[in-house]
Amino acid sequence: PIGTIHSFCARLLRRFSLEVGVDPSFRILDELEAQTLKTKVCEQWLWTKISENSDPTSSDAGKVVGHWGFSRAVGLLTEMLNLRLLIEHRKAKGEPILNRTGDLEEPELALERCYEYVAEAYDAEKAKINALDYDDLLLRAWKLLKGNEQVRQRVRQTYKRILVDELQESD
After folding, report:
1. Can you give the pLDDT at residue 146?
2. Quick one: which of 11, 28, 29, 134 is 20 to 30 A from 36 by CA?
């Protein structure tokens, strides 16, 4: 079959939905829907955490908002969700999320921790509406193939060769 890298990944995820843990009838969020949901999740998560001040994540959220302000903190966390493929790749290689010379300061460390919670909250919101975004297609297919030898063997039997044109468009 001919298609984009995203459509190929979506086919894999639907075919191996049990192994991935998704409903095979998932829908794919367009970029505007995904961006809107990311911003909403970041705003709600931050607002809830700084309002309740009841757990360690509230302290981290307070540090982030105290350092950058609410709007900028939402923007930073939203942008980190936009860079999720890069961040997950860096984490898989054992590299830090944020890249800078010298040690990270406490607000930056708190931002990294907040990102992890916001990413979980974003995934939970997508699960509620049975949806994945374009990054999910690539990330989950990569994790599926990397972590499951049986799936890799079945894919190798199905596809002898895969030609990827314009891979740079997938980040």
Report:
1. 92
2. 11
